[in-house]
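Take a look at the protein record below with the fold in mind.
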Amino acid sequence: MKYLRLALILGLALLLTGCRVELYSALPEDDANQMLAILMQHNIDADKQPKAGGVTLRVEQSQFINAVELLRLNGFPRRSYVSAETMFPPNQLVVSPAEEQQKIVFLNEQRIERMLSQMDGVIHADVTIAYGRANDDGSVGPASVAVFIKYSPQVNLEAFRVQISNLVEKSIPGVQKEHIGILMQPAEFRMLSVANMPTATPWRAIAWINLHRWALMPPLLLAMLLLISLMLIVWRKRG
């Protein structure tokens, strides 16, 4: 009986090792599907649960860090942008021309950021549009644009610098190419995979078992059931 209890405890321990934790919540269905597909492509065990307000993405607790980093390198979760309807609601009171101009500039910045974020490898994009002060004769100085892009080190985004500059130039009327500044920074790669672990350490085997534990679970449970059955037979014969 002592061995039977020990086997049951070991079985419960194996089942509890697959504890899942919440990764992201309130996600749009499309984003949740893409994020889940990325995780599954990299052998990270995850699932999604529809809830009020959006979809919740869950992942194995032991793979939480790699899941967050992997999704970050792929630009997830996506940024949410303010729509023109939100900035200019139908029942809005009359605003000053300066305030209206600020809202238009903000919407233009977001429009360019959204376009840049659709490029493969872009993790985060920020765009700032600045207009010169009005002169005494009423004319306005030339506009300048600052673009910051953080991108995945797996993509050579520097090869698209000219195309990005052209995109920004065509998106803002009157801006000149020499007044466009672009800073692109590769993100730091912080994932730790089983393949990158030193072969001389026992943690490599532990990590491999942890990564493939769901595939190993059925044969292990079957072996435990056979062992329990064998111990019951022996116990009954002794009784």
User: Anything to note?
Assistant: The first helix runs from residue 2 to 16.
